[in-house]
Amino acid sequence: MKHTPPIIALDFASAQETYAFLDRFQEEELFVKVGMELFYQEGPAILEKLQERGCRIFLDLKCHDIPTTVYKAMKRLAGFGVSLVNVHAAGGKQMMESALEGLEAGTPAGQKRPSLIAVTQLTSTSSEMLQHELLIERPLLDTVVHYSRLAEESGLDGVVCSVHEAEHIYRAVSLDFLTVTPGIRMADDKNNDQVRVATPSYAREKGVSAIVVGRSITQAEDPVSAYRRIGHEWEGTKA
Ligand code: C5P
Q1: CA separation for the pair 221, 207 (Å, rounded)
Q2: Which portions of the chain are predicted below pLDDT 50?
Q3: Does residue 112 carry a catalytic annotation?
């Protein structure tokens, strides 16, 4: 997972739209994220099609259920040949351990188990919401760091978090623990609905493992040059 290119969030409504977007890319070996919208529309077949196009896949389904159900879900997902999957840390330690066991049980012999990461707090969760709706009194950042430690103790490979949280997380977990960070924007981009955004170079400075970029690439006038610009900034190389 280290030194991965920017992961492109394929937040499209159909396979057709997805392929029209991907057709613009020729030489690049892409790492893409398939979320609920596209997966629920197209099913596992979309994963196979993306793999035929040479894409590595982060399957972002954020599983959260009782441990047995998550075990069975992960056992199925392990057969899809994706590189990265996730669960909600809020499901607790036993659920995360079951997720990992399910992945291990379902990974075909001779293949690499997909990396498993946990969502700490969604970026749409605010401190007010945590306190007044969910009745969680501790500061949001404390919960993020605590969930990260819990994920590591459960044997997971990393977490989804914001760039701004990464340095706090690395004070609590080992440096080979993955931090996969959405909310990435170029300095001259629109923020859309993301609140705590960061640029690719800031993400690199903060030592995060991977960046996830959606609209800054998918909605750009020229997605390929946007992807390359973001990639150069992320890798610290000249365009
Ligand atoms: O378009 P944008 O770059 O904001 O897309 C970010 C992607 O990362 C979206 O697919 C969004 O669902 C996902 N994500 C996020 N915040 C999280 C977890 C996932 O923005 N905490």
Answers
A1: 30
A2: none
A3: no
